[in-house]
């Protein structure tokens, strides 16, 4: 196995163009496991750790440009206000050691349906900045996941950053696991309220071949909130609306039975998480969100 160690982003793109089968390694918390278990024996490893800019982020007007290798621990520490859903999801990843190494670029690279960043990214809304020597393109997150552990990257492309919409309202992330830490999700749910556009977005993890949004649940809720004037009057969401949202979220799942849980349990748990996280975010919106909006 050859080890390529580019000193700059341009060198990394050139190396990937020359060796499209080279496997990028960032934190290595997925790649090294696969190599150790002999699941993968790449001809080339492309080490991205000398490229400092991949561990940096910029907070813009509308979005955060998050370098592909920014570790989860930095997101938790520095971007809690701008990216609350992703910060909560980061908290649930593995252990402090893994959170200091692993990042969103690696989670996207692996594209496991159980990756914790995905539901938060889907709910917040973001674009993946992919680059090759041929140029740069922004891939909408909805088009990024193409199959079980497959993504929309071309063989010569690398992820440079993720452009994540800054929170304009409350966000939540909920995960079911067999214990509190060091656990892969049995299933997970992310939700983001977007009062500016009066929309709610969702993300579901580990309950379908890819991370998905519960689109019918979103459409139902968006219409119900609009119809009832909920965004203005800040009324408590009725149990009937919350239940229907939960049922549609549960219906969006297409899970399998595996060692971590049954398909039936996953559908059930996603419904529960959808109802609970909607309640938490809406309470936050009623309490703080609307006061801030009114004051602006
Ligand atoms: C003990 C343990 C516990 C874990 N627990 C969790 C958990 O709770 N939740 C969770 O979501 N994950 C978990 N993981 C998996 C892993 O930590 C995450 O997926 C993490 O986000 C991977 O990031 P990384 O930088 O280490 O990626 P790496 O291992 O370096 O790379 C992962 C994949 O992404 C590709 N890649 C990396 N960077 C780029 C780039 N810039 N452009 C293109 N492709 C790239 C690699 O080629 C590889 O295919 C766990 C892993 C371990 C070992």
TrEMBL record:
UniProt-listed InterPro entries: CO_DH_flav_C, CO_DH_flav_C_dom_sf, Diverse_Substr_Oxidored, FAD-bd_PCMH, FAD-bd_PCMH-like_sf, FAD-bd_PCMH_sub1, FAD-bd_PCMH_sub2, Mopterin_DH_FAD-bd
Alphabetized GO MF terms: FAD binding; oxidoreductase activity
Highest taxon of the lineage: Bacteria
Keywords from the UniProt entry: FAD, Flavoprotein, Oxidoreductase
Alphabetized Pfam families for the sequence: CO_deh_flav_C, FAD_binding_5
Domain FAD-binding PCMH-type: 1-169
PANTHER family, sorted: XANTHINE DEHYDROGENASE SUBUNIT C-RELATED (PTHR42659)
Protein name, UniProt field: Oxidoreductase
Organism: Streptomyces griseus subsp. griseus (strain JCM 4626 / CBS 651.72 / NBRC 13350 / KCC S-0626 / ISP 5235)
Taxonomic classification: Bacteria, Bacillati, Actinomycetota, Actinomycetes, Kitasatosporales
């Amino acid at each position: 196995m050859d080890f390529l160690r580019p000193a700059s982003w341009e060198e990394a793109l050139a190396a990937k163009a020359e060796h499209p089968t080279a496997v990028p390694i960032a934190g290595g918390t997925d790649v090294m496991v696969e190599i150790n278990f002999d699941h993968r024996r790449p001809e080339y490893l492309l080490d991205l750790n000398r490229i400092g800019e991949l561990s940096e982020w910029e907070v813009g007007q509308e979005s955060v440009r998050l370098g592909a290798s920014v570790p989860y621990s930095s997101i938790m520490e520095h971007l809690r206000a701008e990216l609350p859903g992703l910060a909560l999801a980061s908290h649930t990843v593995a252990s402090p050691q893994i959170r200091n190494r692993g990042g969103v670029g690696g989670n996207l690279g692996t594209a496991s349906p159980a990756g914790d960043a995905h539901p938060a990214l889907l709910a917040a809304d973001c674009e993946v900045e992919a680059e090759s020597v041929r140029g740069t393109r922004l891939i909408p997150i909805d088009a990024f996941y193409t199959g079980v552990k497959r993504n929309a990257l071309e063989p010569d492309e690398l992820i440079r950053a993720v452009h994540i919409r800054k929170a304009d309202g409350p966000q939540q992330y909920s995960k079911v696991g067999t214990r509190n830490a060091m656990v892969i999700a049995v299933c997970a749910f992310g939700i983001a309220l977007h009062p500016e556009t009066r929309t709610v977005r969702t993300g579901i993890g580990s309950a379908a071949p890819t991370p998905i949004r519960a689109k019918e649940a979103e459409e139902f809720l968006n219409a119900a909130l609009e119809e009832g004037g909920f965004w203005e009057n800040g009324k408590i969401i009725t149990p009937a609306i919350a239940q229907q949202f939960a049922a549609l979220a549960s219906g969006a799942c297409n899970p399998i039975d595996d060692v971590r849980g049954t398909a039936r349990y996953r559908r059930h748990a996603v419904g529960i998480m959808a109802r609970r996280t909607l309640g938490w975010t809406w309470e936050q919106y009623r309490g703080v969100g609307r006061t801030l909006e009114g004051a602006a």
